[in-house]
Amino acid sequence: MKKLFTVDDFAVAFVAALGYGFGETISRLLGWPPFACGLASLVLGMVLEIIINRIAFSETVQKSLRNRILTYAAFCLVFLIAHTVSFLSAGVSMVNYLTEHFAYIVVLPLLGFGINLLIRAYQIRKIRSLYGDGSEGFVFDVAKEDVEEINRQNQPVSGEYDPECAVKTETGVYVGEKNKQTVSWCGIPYAIPPVGDRRWKAPEPLPPSDTVFEAKCFGASAIQVDHKGSILKLHRQSEDCLTLNIWTGADKAESPKPVLVLFHHGGFTCGGSADPLLYGSEFADQHPDIVFVSFNYRLGLFGFIDFSEVPGGEAYPDAVNLGLLDQIAALEWIRDNIAAFGGDPGRVTVLGFEAGAASVCLLSACKRAKGLFRKAFALNGSPASAWETPEQAKALAQALLKETRTSTMEELSHLSTEALKDASQKLWRDMCGPTCDGTLIPADVFQAWQNGTASDIGIIIGIPGNEMQVYRSFVGDQNYTEELSAAVTDLQNSVDDSAAGALRAYTETQAASGSGLEAKSKLVEQCLAVSLYRSAEILAEGGNQVRLIYWNEKPLIGNLGSGTVDAAAALLGNREALQLYGNVMNTDLSETLQLLLAKFIHGEDLQLYPNEIKGIDALTWRAFPLALIVSDGKVQCGPIEDLLPEIGSLPDFIESKK
To answer: Could you write out the three-class secondary structure of 444-510?
Structure first.
């Protein structure tokens, strides 16, 4: 993707060669010793090359073809004049130095390219030795010391502490940790722990405090379902999980920085901010002018359950959408406190993956979340992920009573965390996500979008390819097969009879050229793509400025898939984490996507001028219905319909719901 040599490189060589040549020639004429002559040549050449690089690759020059041509012509003219003067006065030809410098600018990139290929080959070999054909799914190679490190807990602060890493907020003073060019604060509570009598209750704000707290370690992950391919099964879990993490550049900024808030994935039953895939350190290191925040929220039967039909359940009216209320509480804490970390509470962008993306979409239509964020990036999630009625959440409550042999809320509230954790593990197929209850979330989010409820929010919708293989790698073969069959049945039951018949016919046709499992997988993935595309379409109809991104990169190991995992790693720059998930990052793609994300956060035009990333051509990310297409190591903007023909051929199950 990135060019090894550009016209700009050769143009720079013209003037840079003068520096190397004059440095040696003048010092020799002055009678300096050979070593000093060589040093003078090197210093003057490098200084001049840095100056000319800044001119040639500046935005002013690169954004205009006319300016580029004039600049290159000026470089050539300067070289010709200098060559003539040098030859006539000292008998020295600058052409020789130019030839030598051309060889230098060609050989060095080729050498670097070769070294990178060797490093990549080594990384691939290491991953393949661990994963083989990938049939076992995610099998993380995590050292014992790394597990111990991630499970460290913040300790009470007594005595002196580093004031440069301490930030005073409304809820306490938090002492973080400086690492290279960034400062991080981890495990900051954003609400009173939802334990004891507060279990299944809405989050409550923390009281004002001047207490000093350590903020160097991640807080506990939420109680969740531990799947075979979940890395967070290695991390401690607790009902006391409402914490957030902040990364930003160490240098003080003159003006408040925009804020990026990450919503984690996990199907509303698992996941958390301690997943290495979601660390903010690399992104903050590359973009120190942005404040990066991630957080945890309640999951599964702790976060999404309806007790209205359980004796005593009337005291827990918020249980159906507690996870969303946690998310709102986190955003409110950020609004009230992020300025202390250098952030601008009026310029918050939310970024969600999978369940996090669905949450972002739901909150965009939520009155309680109004004004808490201005921009949203939702990759692989839509309102279709939420249940339209609370029936599933009520059924989960009944299943929980049966599993725990209880009959009232009083009995449930006295169960230990371990007992509920065990119940979660056994009932994970009965789990549900948020409910469009008509109170917190509109009963019909798509209709609310069409009515313009989110029209003041700039939104990017992301469609991943090869996502079902990622899911299989996460939950394992047996669970995948059962869940896939259930998903197809749910699809058929969610549409009218004619659409259900079309879905069955489509599956049978696909199965004729492959296995039934592959046919079901393709159907679910294509229906997901249709749902996400329709989300973008409906938002555009409601007046939103919408952009679409389609991630279609091929996985390194086919059985592991690519999808949201690889896209998330690329957007955040988490190269080492991606290797844990069985792939090697394309750094060119990552650099390009990160820069576009940063421009989105800053409110700039989503376009790259030539060589804004050195060696990469100009790019403009145009609004929907065009899409930014990431495929085969390339990024380009164009129509997506030919890549996703099912958009026009599959029944639109969003509009044909019963």
So the answer is: CHHHHHHCCCCCCCEEEEEEECCHHHHHHHHHCHHHHHHHHHHHHHHHHHCECHHHHHHHHHHHHHH
Strands 257-263, 343-353: parallel, antiparallel or unpaired by DSSP? parallel
Cα–Cα distance for residue pair 38/596, rounded to 1 Å = 43
d(CA 461, CA 75): 44
Nearest to 260 by CA among 270, 248, 272, 276: 248
| Cβ neighbourhood burial of 177 (10 Å; 0-12, 13-18, 19+) | middle
> What number of other Cβ atoms are within 10 A of residue 233's Cβ?
15
Instruction: Report the run of H or E that residue 68 belongs to, with start and end.
Output: helix 65-90
> Which pLDDT tens digit goes with each residue over 287-318?
999 999 999 999 999 999 999 999 999 999 99
As a whole number, mean pLDDT of residues 176-201 equals 96
Q: What is the pLDDT of residue 658?
A: 37
What number of other Cβ atoms are within 10 A of residue 455's Cβ? Answer: 14
Query: What are the tokens at 347?
Result: 């310029």
480 with 472: CB under 8 angstroms? yes
SS3 per residue for 176-227: CEEECCEEEEEEEECCCCCCHHHCCCCCCCCCCCCCEEECECCCCECCCCCC
Q: What are the tens digits of pLDDT across the range 535-578?
A: 999 999 999 999 999 999 999 999 999 999 999 999 999 999 99
Looking at residue 530, its pLDDT comes to 87
Grouping H, G, I as helix, E, B as strand and the rest as coil, residue 314 is helix
Q: How far apart are CA 116 and CA 584, in angstroms?
A: 12
Contact 532, 653 (CB under 8 A): no
457, 364 Cβ separation under 8 angstroms: yes
Q: What per-residue string of b and e applies to 391-422 under the rule 16 or more CB within 10 Å gives b? A: ebbbebbebbbebbebeebeebeebeeeebbe
pLDDT surpasses 80 at 644: no
Provide the CB-side half-sphere exposure for 105 (13 A, CA).
Answer: 23
| CB-based contacts of 624, cutoff 8 Å, min separation 6 | 461, 536, 537, 539, 540, 546, 547, 548
**Residue 272: partners with Cβ closer than 8 Å, 6 or more residues away:** 221, 222, 224, 232, 235, 241, 264, 266, 296
**Between 516 and 544, the higher pLDDT residue:** 544
Q: What are phi and psi of 370, to 5 degrees?
A: -60, 130
Q: How far is CA 577 from CA 231, 555, 565, in A?
A: 11, 15, 10
Question: Based on the number of CB atoms within 10 Å of its own CB, is 252 exposed (0-12), middle (13-18) or buried (19 or more)?
Answer: exposed
DSSP-derived secondary structure letter, 358: H
Residue 179 bridge partners (DSSP):
182
For the cut 90, the answer to whether the pLDDT of residue 24 exceeds it is: no
194 preceded by a cis bond (ω within 30 of 0):
no
Q: Using the structure block, give the residue that is written with the tokens 């259900």.
A: 500
